[in-house]
C-alpha cells in the first residue's frame, strides 16, 4: 500500500487520491462543506495538501455492516488510457455447445459458446467435456484452442491422468479471453431463456458450483491471480422496484446459486465517498487475467503439456492429429471453423487505465463499469442491457466510446483534477 499522504476531513468515509488520503463524507457534512467551498470541484488536492497525514479510520456503513475501507481515487483522465481492446463474446442462444461428434476416426467433444461467462464457467465446463473425452479409456487428448476454455480443459484432463497437447492459432495472452473484464459472471449472456433446453439450468448450476470451488484454490497466491473485491453499484435515483427490462430475454440463473456469494448490502449515503446518493455493495471474485493466464500456461507446461501453433481451416484438418480424442475449445473461432452460425458475436470494448494499487475495487454507474485490477483498470460501457454489442463483430477500438465511458466514471471523482 502507498504511504499515507495529506488528509482533508469532511466526515468519516474516505478516498485516497494518489498517495494522499482524503477523508470524506459524513455525506451531508461533506455536501455542506462542498457548497461552502464553491461546489464539489473546488475540493481539489491543492486545498488538502497542508494537513498532516494519517490513514482514515474505516467507518461502519450500518450497525452490523462491514466498514467501507478507504478507497483510492481513480485518476480518471484520458491520458492514463494505456490501451483499448475489443473482444467478441461467443454467444449461443441455446447455451454452450458441449456435445460430441465423430469426425473421421476422431471423437470431437465440443466446448465453445460460453458468451460472457467463459472464465467463470470454465472449470465446470472442463469437468463435463473431459469426462466425455476420457470415457472410452483414451489417454492422449488434443485440445484445440488456448484461451480460457482450452487451458482449463487441458489442465483438467492432465489432472485426470491424460497426456495433453494444445493446438491453437494463438495462445494466451494473444487470445480473446485475455481481453475479458475479469469478474465472476457465470450467467452473463450464457443463453436465451426461451432457447435453452430444459436440462440446461441444472447443468449450468453444476458447472457454476464446480468452477466456484476450483477458483477458491487459486486464492492467496503470489501475484493474486484470483482475489475477492468489492463492487459499488451507484445511482443518482432510487433503484427501480421492478426488474430491468431485457428485450431479448437472456437467461439468468443466479437464484440457483444464491448461497455462493455474500448478500449485497445497501449503503446509506454517509457511508461511502461517492457523489451519487444510492449505493449497493457486492463482493465478487475477480480474475487478474494476465497473472492467471500465465499461471495456467505454466501449470499446463510444468505438468508435461505441449503447445503447437496450428490453424485449422475445416473439421477435416483434424485428421492430421495423432490423438483420437479432440476437445474443441475454439470460442468465437468455432463459427468459422465449424460453420456454426448459432455462434453470435457480442462485442465488448475495454479502455485500460494504468494500474493504481490503491484502486482495488469496482464501480457500476450509468451503464459504465470500472474495475481496479492489478494488471490494469478496466473502463467499460455496458449499455442499458445485455444486448449491448449483440451481433456486432467489429473488433476495431473506438476511442470516442472509451473517452465517453471514462468521463462518466470521472464524474464520481470530482476532487481529481482533470
Ligand atoms: C468485453 C468482454 C468481457 C468479458 N468479461 C468476462 C468476465 O468478466 N468474466 C467471464 O467469465 N467472462 C467474460 N467474458 C467472456 C469470456 O471472455 C469468453 O467467454 C471466453 O474468453 C471464451 O474463451 P474461449 O477459450 O472459448 O475463446 P478464446 O479466448 O477466443 O480462445 C479460442 C482459442 O481457439 C483458437 N482458435 C480459434 N479458431 C481456431 C482455428 N481455426 N484453428 C486453430 N485455433 C483456433 C484461438 O487461437 C484461441 O487459442 C468477456 C468477454 C468480453 C468480450
Give helix and strand order, one letter per element, not per position. EEEHEEEEEEHEHEHEEEHEEHEEEEH
Sheet having the most strands: 8 strands, mixed
CATH class type of the largest domain: Alpha Beta
Strand content: 25-35%
What is the residue-averaged pLDDT?
87
The CATH superfamily title of the largest domain = NAD(P)-binding Rossmann-like Domain
Number of helices: 7
Report the principal-axis shape. Answer: globular
Gap between N and C termini = 24 Å
Strand count: 20
Query: Which spans have pLDDT < 50 for at least 5 consecutive residues?
Result: 1-13, 16-57
Trace the largest sheet across and list its strands.
7-17-20-19-18-12-14-13
Textual characterization of the structure:
This protein is an alpha/beta fold and 418 residues long. It has two domains: 7-57, no CATH class; 79-410, Rossmann fold. The protein contains seven helices and 20 strands. The protein has helices spanning 27-36, 118-134, 148-159, 200-216, 289-302, 334-337, 399-410, and strands at residues 7-9, 14-17, 21-23, 59-60, 67-68, 71-73, 81-91, 100-103, 106-110, 140-146, 163-171, 226-235, 265-267, 278-287, 306-309, 325-328, 344-353, 362-365, 368-373, 376-381. The strands form four sheets. Strands 7-17-20-19-18-12-14-13 form an eight-stranded mixed beta sheet. A six-stranded mixed beta sheet has the order 8-9-16-10-11-15, with helices on one face. A hairpin with a 2-residue loop joins strand 18 (362-365) and strand 19 (368-373). The longest helix has 17 residues, at 118-134. 44% of the residues are buried. The protein binds flavin-adenine dinucleotide (FAD). Flavin-adenine dinucleotide binds next to strand 7, helix 2, strand 10, helix 3 and strand 11.
Amino acid at each position: 500500500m502507498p504511504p499515507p499522504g495529506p488528509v482533508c476531513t469532511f466526515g468519516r468515509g474516505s478516498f485516497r487520491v494518489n498517495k494522499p488520503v482524503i477523508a470524506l463524507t459524513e455525506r451531508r457534512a461533506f455536501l455542506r462543506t462542498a457548497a461552502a467551498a464553491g461546489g464539489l470541484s473546488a475540493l481539489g488536492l491543492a486545498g488538502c495538501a497542508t494537513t498532516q497525514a494519517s490513514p482514515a479510520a474505516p467507518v461502519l456503513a450500518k450497525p452490523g455492516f462491514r466498514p467501507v475501507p478507504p478507497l483510492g481515487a481513480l485518476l480518471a483522465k484520458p491520458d492514463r488510457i494505456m490501451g483499448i481492446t475489443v473482444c467478441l463474446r461467443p454467444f449461443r442462444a441455446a447455451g454452450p455447445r458441449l456435445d460430441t461428434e465423430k469426425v473421421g476416426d476422431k471423437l470431437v467433444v465440443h466446448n465453445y459458446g460460453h458468451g460472457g461467462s467463459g472464465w467463470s464457467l470454465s472449470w465446470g465446463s472442463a469437468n463435463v467435456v473431459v469426462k466425455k473425452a476420457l470415457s472410452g479409456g483414451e489417454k492422449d487428448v488434443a485440445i484445440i484452442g488456448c484461451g480460457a476454455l482450452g487451458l482449463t480443459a487441458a489442465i483438467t484432463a492432465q489432472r485426470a491422468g491424460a497426456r495433453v497437447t494444445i493446438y491453437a492459432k494463438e495462445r494466451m495472452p494473444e487470445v480473446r479471453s485475455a481481453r475479458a473484464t475479469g469478474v465472476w459472471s457465470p450467467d452473463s449472456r450464457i443463453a436465451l431463456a426461451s432457447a435453452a433446453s430444459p436440462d440446461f439450468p441444472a447443468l449450468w448450476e453444476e458447472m457454476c458450483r464446480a468452477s466456484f470451488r476450483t477458483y477458491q484454490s487459486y486464492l492467496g497466491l503470489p501475484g493474486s491471480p484470483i482475489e475477492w473485491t468489492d463492487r459499488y453499484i451507484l445511482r443518482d435515483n432510487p433503484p427501480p422496484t421492478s426488474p430491468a427490462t431485457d428485450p431479448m430475454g437472456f437467461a439468468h440463473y443466479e437464484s440457483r446459486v444464491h448461497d455462493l456469494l455474500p448478500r449485497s448490502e445497501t449503503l446509506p449515503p454517509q457511508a461511502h465517498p461517492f457523489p451519487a446518493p444510492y449505493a449497493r455493495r457486492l463482493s465478487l471474485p475477480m480474475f487478474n487475467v494476465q497473472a492467471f493466464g500465465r499461471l495456467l500456461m505454466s501449470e499446463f507446461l510444468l505438468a508435461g503439456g505441449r503447445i503447437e501453433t496450428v490453424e485449422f481451416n475445416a473439421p477435416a484438418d483434424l485428421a492430421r492429429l495423432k490423438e483420437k480424442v479432440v476437445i474443441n475449445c475454439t470460442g468465437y473461432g468455432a463459427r468459422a471453423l465449424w460453420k456454426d452460425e448459432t455462434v453470435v458475436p457480442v462485442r465488448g470494448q475495454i479502455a485500460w487505465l494504468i494500474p493504481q494499487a490503491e484502486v482495488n475495487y469496482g464501480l457500476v454507474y450509468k451503464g459504465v463499469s470500472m474495475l481496479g485490477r492489478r494488471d490494469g483498470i478496466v473502463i467499460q460501457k455496458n449499455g442499458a442491457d445485455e444486448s449491448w454489442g449483440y451481433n456486432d463483430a467489429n473488433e476495431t477500438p473506438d476511442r470516442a466510446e472509451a473517452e465517453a465511458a471514462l468521463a462518466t466514471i470521472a464524474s464520481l471523482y470530482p476532487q481529481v483534477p482533470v
